[in-house]
Structures are given as C-alpha cells and as structure tokens.
TrEMBL record:
It holds the Pfam family Aminotran_4. Belongs to the class-IV pyridoxal-phosphate-dependent aminotransferase family. Keywords: Lyase. The keyword Cell inner membrane does not apply. One of its GO terms (molecular function) is 4-amino-4-deoxychorismate lyase activity. It is an enzyme of class 4 (lyase). Its EC number is 4.1.3.38. The keyword Lyase applies. Residues 1-48 are annotated as: Disordered. GO terms for biological process: carboxylic acid biosynthetic process. Residues 13-48 have a biased composition (Low complexity). This is Aminodeoxychorismate lyase.
C-alpha cells in the first residue's frame, strides 16, 4: 500500500456538495509537452489563455468512459483548486478507499505515463473498482501539464476514489481528479538520506496468503506510510525502510529499494507485496545497457547495510542514496546517483 512518489499527497478540500518491484522494461518518456500559452507576465494579441504558475486542478467525470457522463457533461473539466470540490461522504475521505499515482514531469517531459496508468488500473482492480478509461486519464494528464506554467520539475497526481457513500450496487460513480503543481526542492535528499528500518507488520508472503491486505496496491489509505516517516524523523532519520515480519527489506513508504552488491543491482520482487516501481524500470534499463546485472531478491536489512550502496527511487525525488541505515554508514557513489536521477527524469538515455 505504498507509493513511490516521495511527496505529500493532499490535493483537495472537502465540502457537502460536489463541484477529484519488478524490474520491468521501462516505457519511453512522453515527448516534450509545449506550453499551451506564453509565460505569465508576457503580452500577446491572442485571446488564448495564459498557463498558470498556480497548481492546476482537473476533475475527470469521464473516468470510466462516456456511459458515466450526464447529458452535456464533459469528460475532463478544469476546476478551481482553491474551492471545495469533493463530497464529505466520498469514500476516498471517509474510508481512504481509492487509488492514486504521482507522475514526474521534467522540462515538459511526462515520464512513464503508460506504466503509471497501468499501475493505477492494477491498484483499482485489486480494490475491485470498475475498469478505468486510461485514454481519458492520459488526455487529462497532458492537459494538466499544458494548463500549468513551464517549470523545470512538475508533479502530476491522479486520484480515483470509490465515490460517494450509499450508491446502489452497479450504480457506483467513481470520483477522479488530477492535481498538478511545481515540485519541491529535493536537492538535499538527492545528495543522501539517513534511513531507519521499521517493521511493516506483515510477512513477505502476504500477497499470496492474504490478498485482502492489498499489499502492492497504491491506495489512498496512507496514514501508516506517513506515521512511519514521522517515526523515522523521531529517530533522526529522513526516511524509513519497510521490513516484513519475516525479516526482509521491502521498500520505502514512498519509494522503491535498489541495492548494489559488486556489479549486481538487486531490488525486492513484486511478489513480496511491494509496489512495482515505475522509476526502477528506467534505472534498470540504463544499468543493463551498461552491461550490469539486475536481479530480484529478498534481502535482510543487515544485507542492505553491508552492501556497496543503496538507493530509494521515486518519481518526484528521483534517486536518493542511502548514507546510513540504522546508523551504519553505506558507500555513496554520487556520480552513479546523478546518473540514476537523469535516467528517471529522461535527461539521459539507457
């Protein structure tokens, strides 16, 4: 139930009325998305709207296709991000029942859009939500980038909740929205982070024995993830590493684990209940292009601490090298870390 975005996920206020790791081969980044309008502050004779530097909010009533739309209703609607847009009875609020994704956009390049949408559908399927219209979502993501002013790093979040409480069986209408805003400054984390290992409380076999725990789904129920980050901070660390109850390192609360041992790079298998990392695919492709071996294997925290380097990978923070795990210093290769960041951000080819 974790996500590899490395960012706070709040996007909307509530109101009483409506107006929103497997080492797989990566998808190529989206082509650069041109600005839909001149930069703010410039003059133009055109009547075209000027892209906004403020966060952009889009509602997506067409999340499950045209059949869900009312008469004359558009599938994608630009909304006021400062006004209430979500019912207080929405199950995303009352139960945390929903899925989300965070997509990095670097210099206009939308990274790994298809893998993110496929992972969103995977999470929705695990939660028994209806089939999503991924084409509409792709259009909405591109529009959110167009509507936002050009910035070097942008985060686009997609949220899909189960909708308002009380819907009759077969008539449920999902609530979906997209929120785009400039990314925070992650330069400190990209230079290195201190990490502590914390017990996640479930075994690495949970996906097979207890699928109702939704291990490996990126859900809106993020209270545990945030609590673990707060606990890490209480222990003078900046992030946490989930550990299964049978003793294996899994992933970070918002990130994917990558470990170096010699010339071999290892990540946690998705079968252990971790979120399949979209950022990981870009890094693995780059490593394999350089002739290096990439494997999936369960490692203990002690094995990670004794490794030749480890990183937490995510769509926003990119590659954060682990400088210490439970107080034990790890080797840090900053040149390799920068290479990983460039691969995830689409600034370098595999």
């Amino acid at each position: 139930m974790t996500g590899a975005d490395g960012v706070d996920n709040g996007a909307m206020t509530t109101a009483s009325s409506p107006s929103d790791h497997a080492a797989a081969a990566p998808a190529a980044p989206e082509a650069a998305v041109p600005s839909a309008a001149p930069a703010p502050g410039t003059t133009t004779s055109s009547d075209a709207p000027v892209a906004s530097a403020a966060p952009v909010l889009l509602l997506v009533p067409g999340i499950i296709g045209p059949s869900a739309l009312g008469a004359g209703e558009e599938p994608i609607v630009l909304a006021d991000g400062t006004a209430p847009q979500l019912r207080v009875t929405d199950l995303g609020v009352t139960r945390g029942e929903g899925a989300f994704e965070t997509i990095g956009v670097f210099d206009g390049r939308i990274m790994a859009l298809a893998p993110h949408l496929e992972r969103l559908q995977r999470s929705a399927t695990m939660m028994e939500l209806p089939e999503l219209d991924l084409d509409v979502l792709a259009q909405a993501v591109r529009r959110a980038v167009d509507e936002h002013a050009d910035v070097p790093e942008l985060l686009v979040r997609i949220f899909v909740s189960s909708g308002p409480e009380g819907g009759a069986p077969g008539t449920a209408r999902l609530t979906a929205w997209i929120h785009a805003k400039a990314a925070p400054d992650y330069s400190g984390e990209r230079a290195g982070i201190r990490v502590v290992a914390l017990d996640r409380g479930i075994p690495s076999t949970a996906p097979q024995t207890s699928p109702w725990l939704l291990a490996g789904a990126k859900t809106m129920s993020y209270a545990i993830n945030m609590a673990m980050i707060r606990e890490a901070e209480r222990r003078d660390a900046q992030d946490a590493l989930f550990v299964s109850s049978d003793g294996y390192a899994l992933e970070g609360p918002t990130s994917t684990l990558l470990v170096r041992r010699g010339d071999t790079f290892t990540t946690t298998p998705a079968s252990a209940g971790v979120l399949p990392g979209t950022s990981l695919g870009s890094v693995v492709a780059g490593l394999r292009a350089g002739g290096l071996d990439c494997t999936e294997e369960l490692l203990t925290p002690a094995e990670v601490a004794a490794s030749d380097g480890a990183w937490l990978l995510s769509s926003g923070r990119l590659a954060a090298p682990i400088t210490h795990l439970d107080g034990i210093a790890l080797p840090v290769d900053m040149e390799l870390s920068r290479r990983f960041c460039d691969l995830i951000a689409g600034r370098a080819q595999a």
